[in-house]
Amino acid sequence: MLKIPVINASRHELPAYQTAHAAGLDLRADLPNGAITLHSLERVLVPTGLSLALPPGYEAQVRPRSGLALKHGIGIVNSPGTIDADYRGEIRVLLVNLSKEPFTVQDGERIAQLVVARHETIEWQPTEALNATERGAGGYGSTGK
């Protein structure tokens, strides 16, 4: 199990997995000054009160919660948001209201998921041609319905 140093400056419990095989931990809004209302197509940066220290070779992805997306049209503008291993600031979530109805974010509400994953660092290898594949350069819609 990977151990991640974390500072919890919020009044809320640390993020936790909600089921035994969940990939993401739920992040909570830290709103000591009260709820925030997002109007249609409005976006807001919501604090969590959490800061962490990821080891090199890892990233944390901030992803939308499916229930908020389905029931209220709430998403994350830069989804997934990436937290790099050298970032030490507070995790904040850039929510957007894609519905026509206002949505109020309450203090302590679960607003996003955090998934920690390994990643590779690459080195570019310039070349004049790429190896051929059956798909080739077929892009958007090229594989049919």
UniProtKB/TrEMBL annotation:
<dbReference type="InterPro" id="IPR036157">
    <property type="entry name" value="dUTPase-like_sf"/>
</dbReference>
<dbReference type="InterPro" id="IPR008181">
    <property type="entry name" value="dUTPase"/>
</dbReference>
<keyword id="KW-0378">Hydrolase</keyword>
<protein>
    <recommendedName>
        <fullName>Deoxyuridine 5'-triphosphate nucleotidohydrolase</fullName>
        <ecNumber>3.6.1.23</ecNumber>
    </recommendedName>
</protein>
<dbReference type="GO" id="GO:0046081">
    <property type="term" value="P:dUTP catabolic process"/>
</dbReference>
<feature type="domain" description="dUTPase-like">
    <location>
        <begin position="13"/>
        <end position="144"/>
    </location>
</feature>
<feature type="binding site">
    <location>
        <begin position="65"/>
        <end position="67"/>
    </location>
    <ligand>
        <name>substrate</name>
    </ligand>
</feature>
<dbReference type="Pfam" id="PF00692">
    <property type="entry name" value="dUTPase"/>
</dbReference>
<keyword id="KW-0460">Magnesium</keyword>
<dbReference type="InterPro" id="IPR033704">
    <property type="entry name" value="dUTPase_trimeric"/>
</dbReference>
<dbReference type="InterPro" id="IPR029054">
    <property type="entry name" value="dUTPase-like"/>
</dbReference>
<keyword id="KW-0546">Nucleotide metabolism</keyword>
<dbReference type="GO" id="GO:0006226">
    <property type="term" value="P:dUMP biosynthetic process"/>
</dbReference>
<keyword id="KW-0479">Metal-binding</keyword>
<comment type="similarity">
    <text>Belongs to the dUTPase family.</text>
</comment>
<comment type="function">
    <text>This enzyme is involved in nucleotide metabolism: it produces dUMP, the immediate precursor of thymidine nucleotides and it decreases the intracellular concentration of dUTP so that uracil cannot be incorporated into DNA.</text>
</comment>
<feature type="binding site">
    <location>
        <position position="78"/>
    </location>
    <ligand>
        <name>substrate</name>
    </ligand>
</feature>
<dbReference type="GO" id="GO:0004170">
    <property type="term" value="F:dUTP diphosphatase activity"/>
</dbReference>
<dbReference type="GO" id="GO:0000287">
    <property type="term" value="F:magnesium ion binding"/>
</dbReference>
<comment type="pathway">
    <text>Pyrimidine metabolism; dUMP biosynthesis; dUMP from dCTP (dUTP route): step 2/2.</text>
</comment>
<feature type="binding site">
    <location>
        <begin position="82"/>
        <end position="84"/>
    </location>
    <ligand>
        <name>substrate</name>
    </ligand>
</feature>
